[in-house]
Specification:
- There is one protein chain.
- The protein has helices spanning about 5-15, 25-35, 65-85, 95-115, 145-155, and strands at about 1-5, 40, 50, 65, 125-130, 165-175.
- With about 180 residues, the protein is of the alpha+beta class.
- It has two domains: about 1-120, no CATH class; about 125-175, no CATH class.
- A hairpin with a 5-residue loop joins β2 (about 40) and β3.
- The chain is elongated, with a radius of gyration of 21 Å.
Length: about 180
């Protein structure tokens, strides 16, 4: 098997599966795969394999993937990154804008792939993350002091986040 290193290689593998993608789309997919510790491989028949780089040279768990599978993974990774970017104290507006652009491109790619490639039926591990939020007014001289006071109040059971504080869920792939 050979590692897919260039956008042209991914474009060719995608075309073999009937999905036409451009260089920019391939670049985004390869970036998401690499940043998250994966590697895309292909064989002489242009079949795709997703390899977890943490497994080193062990390829026993590398299964055949479709372009649709790979794009679905990238969509999920994008959602997680976007959620993470909004949940940090110091949000980076430029980073969030780039992630939202990626969302549009990845969702368009997925729509193209869904028209050509049927879904792969397999077992999935799904993680549900529940979000709750509560506004706690506190007087303090700084944000750090306010955060420390509220954290202490929460740890001492003075602030209880309950059912009425439900703010939503995130459903993502699990390991």
């Amino acid at each position: 098997m050979n590692s897919i290193q260039t956008t042209e290689e991914l474009v060719a593998s995608s075309a073999r599966q009937g999905v036409t993608i451009c260089g920019t789309e391939a670049e985004i997919v390869l970036a998401y795969i690499k940043v998250h510790g994966y590697e895309l491989l292909t064989d002489d028949d242009y079949k795709l394999y997703l390899h977890d780089e943490n497994a080193g040279e062990d390829h026993t768990h590398d299964g055949t993937e479709t372009v649709r599978d790979i794009v679905e993974l990238c969509v999920e990774l994008n959602k997680e990154m976007l959620l993470d970017s909004y949940s940090t104290q110091e949000q980076d507006a430029d980073d969030q804008l780039e992630l939202r652009k990626d969302t549009l491109i990845l969702e368009t790619m997925l729509a193209k792939a869904e028209k050509v490639i049927p879904p792969t039926v397999r077992r999935y591990n799904v993680v549900i993350i529940e979000h709750r939020k509560k506004l706690v007014p506190v007087l303090a001289a700084s944000w750090a002091e306010a955060e420390a006071r509220v954290r202490e109040m929460w740890e001492n059971g003075e602030v209880v986040i309950g059912q009425s504080d439900f703010a939503g869920i995130l459903i993502s792939s699990g390991g």
